[in-house]
Write the structure tokens for this entry.
Amino acid sequence: MSNSTLLQKIEQCREEMLSLSRSHSLTSEAVITSSVKLDQLMNEYENKK
């Protein structure tokens, strides 16, 4: 996956997590799952640098 594609996925995931956090508690399973996914994408991006 190219860096630009990865950055787009990171931004989409970040927006999804923020949206979920507006309608769920920060400790809800949905928000935590989204946060873990975002962490994984960001780690993948950092490892590619």
Summary: Helices lie at 3-23, 29-48. The longest helix spans residues 3-23.
